[in-house]
Amino acid sequence: MAHSARPARSPHAGPTAPLARIALIGDRSEAVRSHARIPTLLDALRVRDGLDLDAYWIPTDEADEDLTGFDAIWVLPGSPYRSEAGVLSAIRSARESGIPFLGTCGGFQHALLEFARNVCGLAHAGHAENTPGLADEDALVVPLACSLVGHEGTVDVTPGSRAASLLGAERTRARYHCNYAPNPRHLDLLRAHGLAFTGTDPAGEVRLAELPGHPFFLATLFQPELDGDGTRAHPLITGLATAAVAHARTR
């Protein structure tokens, strides 16, 4: 069952300010640091930025329902998810319906998986965490040689990309909590079908993706929700919230 995470309405939001509905896709757990940050980030967006979001937690095994009534979809960390199919359905809905989308950590991995299956035609593409023993030609997401759990490092961002515009810089600091990343052998195919990889670590490994031509479609292997102390939302999260409000104005 979806649960509202919306705090009290901001005194800074005018009476005509649109109330944007955002679906938080994930199997909610206080043990997941990024999940615990969400209420603080919603407060920060409302109070500091005047962006009032009506946020609903949707478990992954309910995420295959119709999400077109939402103004944004954020697939949060916390994999392995209870339902891979539910997560992929939510991502596909965002991609095909032009709903602003952000995927972080596991959300990044599954955004690439959805694109590979439904755009690139890799019907058997899989995630090694969900399907151990995958053949290399089918393994789109594979274990990292060195875990990034607790790691912090720099990400170089492509000039002119949406991410660079939101960040106001071409380099950013990133916090990670993951053990899986995209298989390099498949990246050229994803690029050829329109997915742009716009952020890399110092070794050149992909850490950020976006979909040009979509109103807002960003995915990061790092977790921007863990940036700082949570009292100021990361620019990529503020970007999602801003896109959600813009989407709400079209309804």
From TrEMBL:
Keyword check for Nucleotide-binding: yes
EC class (word): ligase
Transmembrane intervals: none
Alphabetical list of InterPro entries matching this protein: Class_I_gatase-like (IPR029062), CTP_synthase (IPR004468), GATASE (IPR017926)
Gene3D superfamilies cross-referenced by the UniProt entry: 3.40.50.880
One Pfam entry name: GATase
An individual GO BP term: 'de novo' CTP biosynthetic process
SUPFAM superfamilies (UniProt xref): Class I glutamine amidotransferase-like
Keywords of the record: ATP-binding, Glutamine amidotransferase, Ligase, Nucleotide-binding, Pyrimidine biosynthesis
PROSITE patterns documented for this protein: GATASE_TYPE_1
Annotated GO CC locations: cytosol
Reactions catalysed: UTP + L-glutamine + ATP + H2O = CTP + L-glutamate + ADP + phosphate + 2 H(+)
EC number: 6.3.4.2
Residue span(s) of domain Glutamine amidotransferase: 50-132
Molecular-function GO term, any one: CTP synthase activity
Pathway: Pyrimidine metabolism; CTP biosynthesis via de novo pathway; CTP from UDP: step 2/2
Family named by the database record: Belongs to the CTP synthase family.
Protein's name in the database: CTP synthase (glutamine hydrolyzing)
Organism per entry: Streptomyces noursei (Streptomyces albulus)
